[in-house]
Design a protein that fits this description.
68% helix; mainly alpha
Length: 250
């Protein structure tokens, strides 16, 4: 009877038996690389935000289906993604592509031939708010569930989206500036590590953020930048610059 109560050698040597509840896997997403690849392959190489938005919608549909995280048939039943929900990295992808879909929808409205009218602009800002909401949740859950690099990238992405919203609203230029600077600082730091492709992508994003930072400095009165110089900045290319260019056109 005494032997029956003794733990086996396998149970003693197996680290999972004692620490299985303490081992929490950290997910990893190369956020910038993932998004840049998706954007360039699905429309944004040519500034086609409608195509990219449709890609994000299709991608989300596939993610929901593969995760069996659908919202019911017939009547819509909302299901929130929380810390306890994220048992698979694909849940983080859902949040990221939800933000991208809302952002690309806003940019689609921004590109209307005569520009958005008052009603469309309200809708556009609503889409940017939604993008900020998803990006913020993505950043918060990455801080808990992902590795440090992914968490940093998610934080930079959320800061960038917040900066975009304030930039479009023409208000709180100092807060917009703080968010763009925060995103730039992260990409500058991440650009020092990883493979060459990653370093190039981070440097490109830093360069794309620079015009928005300079414009914000101009708006808060911390720059002597002239209007003609702003137009020269707009000669650069990249999805991160499209909102800035549309602001210059206005």
């Amino acid at each position: 009877m005494g032997k029956d109560n003794q733990p086996s050698a396998m149970e003693i040597d197996d680290p999972k038996s004692a620490n299985s509840d303490q081992i929490v896997p950290k997910f990893s997403i190369n956020v910038l690389q993932l998004l840049k690849s998706a954007q360039m392959q699905h429309g944004l190489r040519h500034g086609d935000y409608t195509r990219y938005r449709r890609y994000c919608t299709a991608r989300l549909r596939r993610l929901y289906k593969s995760l069996k995280f659908t919202h019911g048939r017939g009547k819509y039943s909302k299901r929130n993604i929380t810390e306890s929900t994220v048992t698979d990295v694909r849940f983080l992808h859902v949040l990221l592509y939800s933000s991208e879909r809302a952002w690309s929808h806003a940019m689609e409205k921004r590109q209307l031939p005569d520009g958005p009218n008052a009603r469309q602009r309200i809708y556009l800002i609503g889409r940017l708010r939604k993008a900020v909401k998803w990006a913020t949740l993505f950043s918060q859950l990455c801080a808990i569930k992902a590795d440090s690099r992914t968490s940093l990238e998610a934080e930079a992405y959320a800061s960038y989206m917040k900066g975009n919203l304030l930039f479009e609203q023409d208000q709180n230029w100092d807060v917009a500036l703080m968010n763009f600077k925060s995103a730039r600082a992260v990409y500058e730091e991440l650009g020092k590590y990883g493979d060459l492709d990653n370093q190039v992508l981070c440097r490109e994003r830093v360069e794309e953020l620079e015009p928005s930072i300079r414009y914000c400095l101009h708006k808060v009165g911390q720059s002597n930048l002239q209007a003609s110089e702003l137009l020269n900045i707009g000669d650069m290319e990249g999805p991160a610059l499209d909102l800035f260019k549309s602001k210059l056109e206005v």
